[in-house]
Write a structure and sequence with these properties.
Order of helices and strands: EHEHEEHHHE
Number of helices: 5
Mean pLDDT: 93
Number of domains: 1
CATH architecture: Alpha-Beta Complex
CATH class: Alpha Beta
CATH superfamily: Ribosomal protein L13
Helix content: 25-40%
Number of strands: 5
Largest sheet: 3 strands, parallel
CATH topology: Ribosomal Protein L13p, Chain: A
Low-confidence stretches: none
Strand order of the largest sheet: 1-2-5
Radius of gyration: 17 Å
Structural class: alpha/beta
């Protein structure tokens, strides 16, 4: 009888994946990133183990947005106090801090647990084409 193999945290091999965001649609980039961070692209995927790879996104400011999302989409924050809801336009967030926008979008596609938080730590976003992780990349 054959059993399904469950991956253990000690057996996971983590690679570094570089994604160039130049002229790619923002949402398509994020779905690809979330799949890689979770490890769903691997054959030994296990839901309760962080078996994903490290992801580096370069040229984050050169991504495209479909439709009028950049002008019309809003993000909301709330501190917990009455009347403290703040609205942030997507266009302002993309200009000021694109790294935060990418991480916020990827967080929405990951599990809302400690496991998801540890997966998000493996995402590195850079506005330009330079990144300090050249030593980790094979080949």
């Amino acid at each position: 009888m054959k059993f399904t193999q469950m991956a253990k945290a000690t057996e996971i091999d983590r690679d570094w994946v570089i994604i160039d965001a130049t002229d790619k649609v923002f949402g398509r980039i994020i779905t690809e990133v979330a799949t890689i961070l979770r490890g769903k692209n691997k054959t030994n995927y296990t839901p309760h183990v962080d078996c994903g790879d490290n992801v580096i996104i370069i040229n984050a400011t050169k991504a495209k947005f479909s439709g009028t999302k950049l002008e019309t989409k809003n993000y909301y924050t709330h501190s917990g106090y009455f009347g403290s809801t703040k609205t942030h336009k997507m266009s302002d967030m993309f200009e000021q801090n694109p790294e935060k926008l990418y991480k916020l979008a990827a967080r929405g596609m990951l599990p809302k647990t400690k496991l998801g938080k540890s997966m998000l730590k493996k995402l590195k976003v850079y506005a330009g084409s330079e990144h300090p992780h050249t030593a980790q990349i094979k080949g």
